[in-house]
Amino acid sequence: MPKEILKSMHADMKKAVDHTLHEFSSLHTGKATPAMLDGVRVNAYGSTVTLKEVAAVTTPDARTIMVQPWDKSVLKDVEKGIQEANLGLNPIIDGGILRVPVPELTGQRRQELAKTAGSMAEDGRVRVRQGRRDALSLLKTAKNDDGLPEDDFKRYEKEVQKAHDDYIAEINQHLAHKEADLKKV
């Protein structure tokens, strides 16, 4: 039973770190990447869909994202979706495609992005702490109901804390790297 609790806890904490890294990928450092538009939702065909479902997203150069809708009739919807995503990007219609120039980051914008990265990291740390809390709660239940010996409980408790510390350190390391990336001109 305790082994399954630890396995589940590790999976949850790993998901928290992966989610935080995915969130970090949405913060751009002035270099265009298709991942910058991952969160864009488009109202097309009577429903809300992701941008990837209606268009190909490429980066022909470091300063431009090119969006080519599969169906030309949704071009205006895609443009509106990008504008409404509040990414600070302004798409330009060029024939049947959208060109999205990525502006140079100002010092103030870099600070805002670093602050956003910090709050994303804190969300990740909260999820890791929640994984620790859930695992400890399940271990206490196992100790009380299933007769888990006190020595084993203490050993598992230390394992849970070590895993928590390792995952928190990993998030902090990624945050420091992302902040350095964002502040580098």
UniProtKB/TrEMBL annotation:
Compartments where found = Cytoplasm
Q: Give every Ribosome recycling factor domain span.
A: 22-182
List the keywords (alphabetical). Answer: Cytoplasm, Protein biosynthesis
Q: Which InterPro entries match?
A: Ribosome_recyc_fac, Ribosome_recyc_fac_dom, RRF_sf
Q: Which positions make up the signal peptide?
A: none
Per the record, the similarity remark reads: Belongs to the RRF family.
Protein name (database record)? Ribosome-recycling factor
State the organism of origin: Coraliomargarita algicola
Q: What is the lineage of its organism?
A: Bacteria, Pseudomonadati, Verrucomicrobiota, Opitutia, Puniceicoccales
